[in-house]
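Q: What does the assembled structure look like for these inputs?
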Amino acid sequence: MNYSLKSIPEREAKPRERGFTMAMDKGLSVREVEDFLEVAGDYVDIVKLGWGTSYVSPNLQKKLDVYKAAGIPTYFGGTLFEAFIIRDQFDDYRRILDKYNMTFAEVSDGSIELPHEVKCDYISKLSEQVTVLSEVGSKDAEKIIPPYMWIKLMRAELEAGAWKVIGEAREGGNVGLFRSTGEVRSGLVEEILTEIPFEKILWEAPQKAQQVWFIKLLGANVNLGNIAPNEVIPLETIRLGLRGDTFMHFLDVEKPC
Amino acid sequence: MNYSLKSIPEREAKPRERGFTMAMDKGLSVREVEDFLEVAGDYVDIVKLGWGTSYVSPNLQKKLDVYKAAGIPTYFGGTLFEAFIIRDQFDDYRRILDKYNMTFAEVSDGSIELPHEVKCDYISKLSEQVTVLSEVGSKDAEKIIPPYMWIKLMRAELEAGAWKVIGEAREGGNVGLFRSTGEVRSGLVEEILTEIPFEKILWEAPQKAQQVWFIKLLGANVNLGNIAPNEVIPLETIRLGLRGDTFMHFLDVEKPC
Amino acid sequence: MNYSLKSIPEREAKPRERGFTMAMDKGLSVREVEDFLEVAGDYVDIVKLGWGTSYVSPNLQKKLDVYKAAGIPTYFGGTLFEAFIIRDQFDDYRRILDKYNMTFAEVSDGSIELPHEVKCDYISKLSEQVTVLSEVGSKDAEKIIPPYMWIKLMRAELEAGAWKVIGEAREGGNVGLFRSTGEVRSGLVEEILTEIPFEKILWEAPQKAQQVWFIKLLGANVNLGNIAPNEVIPLETIRLGLRGDTFMHFLDVEKPC
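A:
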């Protein structure tokens, strides 16, 4: 930190299980990745190449090299996994993970319908090859999953080998954990947390109001994802109580007047 | 493409009449243009320097050189044409197109009132000098043009020499083709398409929901414009069915389960 | 300017008391600062490092050097001042201003409660060290300050030594001067202007509709702040009547048809 302030919440050090930040790269240039890492390299823990953007990105290998050199792991968005599955190309997907030396992968069913045992089977198989993040929640705003089912699905996916489970929100933050207005389904989150340890969950929270909500409920070291690259520094200040939104939340000092 | 996926919609090759993407530069630096072209150079067909931004951009000539070297044509936004017309400086405008070696220009009447024969006359004159895109639709949310009139205007402007006609939406996507909420005026678009060939129309669709709507209706190779530079890669994935929004739309394979 | 247009509003020259633009840097890289200044260096007058972002920005000193070399003064957001005050670290804050050779500082009470004479006392003390901008208005959407009180507060802060007073809007433009919808509290602004000279006020107006509103009411040379770096060029075109929103506003020429 550049100067000293009292009563700042303590952050976990890297590599961390709690308090990590997943950012989404939806088509950065090599230089933009370098710029992003210059400012946020200490604060971002993992980067998702959003949905199928890796298919069309001409600079893919170079970008992966830059992230790797900086010690930031990357993975392809779950929609890409689904694009291979729906085409019956799972073996091709495994080969692509190898080709690009990926050490993480996401298993999701946001756009396709998979019997849950089949999904868990994919998690198991991929876990032998890479570290798996699995995602719960539909991209379809009309598919409402009740809380007990979120818990059941998350537990089964962790048992199948997922390192962490992701609560779905999309880039826009308007499905899954969130109502179409972007408002958090708070009862849902609270019920999930009675059963699943919070360090095992990565909450997608692309909008500032959502980040604030999770940080106020779960503290500075909640795992948050789908953060835009230029919002990682702002998010870090929200975690530390240095933006208006959480300014008073972490303070235990007496006011001077 | 970086790897092989079955059942991906075929895209027209450049230079193309269908499926092209117009992006809007509203003040990029030279390096930002280079970054943009590194990732999206294969997907963007033409770049508009939005409204009067070229007047105040200190790096104008350098940027035009970078676009030119990459083979991406550029043009000044229609509002600039109107700024010259309302000041009775049409000849100055023609000299500026020459000075900057522009090969495209836009003729519009979004902010001024022009009798339609006068507008068509400008299209004819400029067509002798450059390739003309003409724009139909007002920037004024209260000026509702009925469908038969859109068709009549578009047809006359194509006959006057316009290469393509643009359906107005502004940067925000809330006028012309769209209701103030950003919702597409779908009956209007469908009626227009009964009379005007779709490759002659460039639809302004700055918002993701609008892009999805046009791609679902008109396919991967619809012409779309007013795309933000960092949204060209995301748009390409929507065209290809590799983002949740159009994921199932282009698939003819059987689901594996 | 790159070419000549008649009837363009005259802009004050730098350094200026009127018509200046304050931009907000919320975590730019060094290269992004260079890019920003390449395109907007002539149009931006001062840059705020938003709230506590300077605490976590690893490139802080390098960025300050780049801004300084370009002749653009910078200051730390008012929330950082408040973070030091609430921790009873005012002397530390003064040392940090010295350490980074800051020549401007902001005094605000958007997130803390300060008796107004205490706030004015901070303005007086800091005025001996740097040029002070003071901010009126709460970040709390529920704290409505009546117009006569805005005037009383602004006047007292100017008398205490503030160079200019800032009308609070936050990054999102939804508090203080604005309703939660982003709509301008127009009666408030008009009443303030009956008592406080407009060159002494810097209006925070991050949203385009707000910028347009102020420019239509107060002209091309109103002081506006909290502008995103990539919106400084668009804002300059709005000031000059070269974007649709203010296109007709500054024109005194006759229409050609």
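Chain B has a mean pLDDT of 92.
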